[in-house]
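[step 3/7] inverse_fold.run input=structure_tokens len=374
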């Protein structure tokens, strides 16, 4: 590619364009100049290769930073990185250690670059978190190219040894007192280059396509639970292993229950007569069971009653947590004349012993006032 052609101009984007803008521009131009759409046109084929090279550089943060600073000289022999063997300047102290200590730090070995991991956020209800569920999701993911079986090469063609690195996948250069080894910028560490790139994937060995996946959500999940689907992430380039898909769970608020781990919390309003005389109430659990709760006579607002084993299931374990009910005594606001009459009769019989907390408070208040006035 001619050094005078600016990568940003090739992709028709501003220099500050974000990753999404770069990707959109690349897809649009790649489709426009794809050899299949321009059969026999060498100019379109050359432009298609230039666009691919520009995008390969700009989508990589390190390469883009080097290009923004030095332009094409960043990837040429004798460029600012100081390489005489054709390559990029080192950007990581690990490159130096890799050369000095060899295989102890992974040096000298070509490894396939694994595909990227993906994240999917799923919102479910509390009842679904209680029972678990089967769900079907749809995602767009870079999958292995079928025509070339992920190799990146046109079917019937192959690869040849990279002349830049001699098939080693790495290039070396003197950097001060050190001999620095770095991934070959031409073959990207593969040690070989594709003779004729696959037209379907542009030589990358993968294409974006929608996928439908069945997911099993276990009982007991909570907000923040992460479910890993091995090998369901993006396909690696040139047939490398795929990454993983991580599903992050978000549990929606429930109209009755709040959750604290495996404990279900709810606030239960009761009438003041039930609070005074005692009784029972029924609370339906998330499992569909109706739990009868005994209300002891004289219960106060804020008192908590616990129903063992009526809470959330233990994730990937046995048993269930508890259901905790916080009692709230409700003062009546709509009384009939007869009800008011009965309450006045009750009030007339009160001695103060019925409500020891109230009597104790006012006794303490009276003593404190007396101390202040003496």
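[step 3/7] decode complete -> sequence:
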């Amino acid at each position: 590619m001619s050094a005078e052609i600016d990568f940003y101009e090739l992709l028709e984007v501003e220099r500050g364009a974000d990753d999404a803008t770069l990707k959109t521009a690349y897809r649009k131009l790649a489709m426009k100049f794809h050899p299949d759409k321009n059969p026999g046109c060498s100019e379109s084929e050359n432009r298609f290769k230039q666009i691919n090279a520009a995008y390969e550089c700009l989508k990589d943060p390190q390469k883009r930073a080097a290009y923004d600073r030095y332009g094409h000289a960043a990837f040429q022999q004798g460029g600012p990185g100081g390489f005489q063997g054709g390559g990029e300047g080192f950007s990581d102290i690990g490159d130096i250690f890799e050369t000095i200590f060899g295989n102890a730090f992974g040096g000298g070995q070509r490894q396939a670059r694994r595909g990227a991991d993906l994240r999917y956020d799923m919102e479910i209800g509390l009842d679904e978190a209680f029972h678990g569920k089967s769900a079907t999701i749809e995602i767009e993911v870079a999958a292995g190219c079928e025509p070339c079986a992920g190799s990146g090469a046109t079917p019937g063609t192959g690869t040849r040894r990279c002349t830049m690195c001699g098939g080693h996948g790495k290039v070396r250069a003197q950097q001060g007192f050190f001999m620095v080894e770095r991934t070959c910028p031409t073959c990207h560490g593969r040690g070989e280059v594709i003779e004729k790139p696959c037209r379907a994937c542009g030589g990358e060995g993968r294409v974006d396509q929608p996928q439908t996946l069945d997911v099993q959500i276990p009982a007991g999940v909570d907000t923040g639970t992460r479910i890993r689907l091995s090998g369901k992430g993006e396909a690696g380039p040139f047939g490398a292993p795929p990454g993983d898909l991580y599903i992050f769970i978000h549990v929606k608020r429930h109209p009755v229950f709040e959750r604290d781990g495996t404990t279900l919390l709810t606030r239960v309003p009761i009438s003041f007569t039930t609070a005074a005389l005692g009784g029972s109430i029924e609370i339906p659990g998330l499992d569909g069971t109706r739990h009868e709760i005994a209300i002891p006579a004289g219960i106060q607002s804020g008192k908590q009653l616990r129903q063992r084993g009526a809470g959330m299931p233990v994730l990937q374990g046995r048993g269930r947590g508890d259901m905790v009910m916080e009692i709230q005594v409700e003062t009546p606001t709509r009384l009939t004349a007869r009800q008011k009459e009965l309450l006045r009769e009750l009030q007339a019989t009160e001695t103060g012993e019925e409500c020891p907390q109230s009597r104790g408070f006012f006794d303490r208040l009276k003593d404190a006032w007396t101390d202040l006035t003496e």
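[step 4/7] annotate
Residues 1-75 form a domain with the Helix Hairpins fold (CATH 1.10.287.110).
Confidence is low (pLDDT under 50) at residues 77-110.
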